[in-house]
Here is the input.
Amino acid sequence: MSGYLSAQLSILCLNIIIAYAIFLPAASGQLNLGAGGFAIIGGYLGGWLNSDFDGLGLAMQLSIPLAALATAAIAFLLSFPILRTRGVYMVLATFAFAEVVAGIVLNLEVVGGAAGFPVDGHADLSVLAPICVMVVVSCFLLMSTRFGLAMRSVHDDENVASLFGVNVHWVRVAAFTLGGLLGGLYGALYGHQYNYIEVQNWNVMFSIYVLLYVLLGGTQSPFGPLLGALFFTVVPELLRSFGAAVGSELIADGRFAIFGALIVLMMAFRPEGIVTRTMLERLMGRGAREKGAT
Amino acid sequence: MTALLSLQSISKRFGGLTVIDDVSFNIERGTRSALIGPNGAGKTTLFNLISGVYPIDHGSIVLDGRDFADIPAHRRGGYGLSRSFQNIRLMPHLSTVENIMLGQHARSSTIGMLAPLGLWRNRWVREAEQLLADAGLSTFPGQVVADLPYGIQKRIEVVRALAARPKLLLLDEPAAGLNPAETDELLKLLESISAQGVTLLIVEHDMHFVSRLCQQVVVLNFGRLLFQGTPAAARRDRAVLDAYLGSDHAA
Here is the structure.
């Protein structure tokens, strides 16, 4: 496998994991712009736990899961104030959370402050890929459970969900916390993949992009974030190689402008995301009919 | 034998407006009752109080011997209460079967929350499909609810409420907007539900429908209990006629 391909696949694995971190809250109706905050916490905790010189010198097998669990614990505690907000106010609250985390870490000398922090242990694609597959499979399983049904019901109508026995508050807390777990996992994996992290990696643009992966992919089905992350990771690269192939600097250099236009078009034509329940059902219905015909 | 549902002098105010004013009545086990009254009489509010959407200001609601005062809405289903809604409140992004499985939610254990529903045909899926089949709705199991016709959605709401296996089923205008054929289908469905021993309390404007289905009517007007008795007696009652038609209707 070429270096370029394995680097791109590593980015894809990481992007898929962070997409599911934001998908789980989104599937239960929460707009979470705090992806950067979770990534910073997970990344720095993972790096610090692993570092021989500055931190505890734990093996990577311990530092990554511990960082993810600690991020989940922080998300759990934060969910109580943050889940008092709704809709666009929740976007602002989670954004503020990410900014506060960035501000704190930027001034934390023990992890290098603005200079960034070197991470010792290296996690290559052979680590990222299995974890990514596990995350995807777990999320598909989770969404197929009664808990997943409760999450989607809370998304559609929390009052009715409550009257049918769903404990709306705990479903929302659990979804937010699980999102924090995956966000921390992403951060820790990222640190161990690139062996160097800085707060600037996870600024507000990052959080916006991740939320876009999920909203453009679709929040109604666990296929959504998979497609969203794939689209956002692969399309700019395809545009770059296409531009290079046809020798057009306009396409190669202006690929983000073209990409932006594509995003606007997708919002216009698929406002509920690329993957919707109706679309899945049509695909499956057609598949069943074809099976019946043969 | 004690009543299944017992309301004792319940009141509810929204700000300065008293919407339910000292209402008391009992619903006997296994009966079919209608809650009627002019627009704004407080019928839906009464349903919301029983199901716990809002707390009551005064009085008590007792279902099957259990006082509902300290029981939050999401736990009332576990004590045998289920309802449908005046405007269709199905989950638009869930399939028909998934909506029915939401109705089963109160019967599931905490560990049951993590049992996969969609991967193979377990007992929850089979039961939901059976309920749909019994109601004559088996042709739409996988379809997303938002894409289905109104009359079908209306009946799915009733089946969803039934999936909670309630002792008392509250139905808020189940026949509103249905054509005569759909109304007949609904009537058959409700009669078969009643035959299984489920007690029905129905808000309905269609008096013909009420007379065909219900043994008892409870009439509300301006939040007060006006009348309780048989549908035939309600049609002759002076106060009920005044409330519906105005006090000079006899002229």
Observations:
- The first strand of chain A starts at residue 117 and ends at 118.
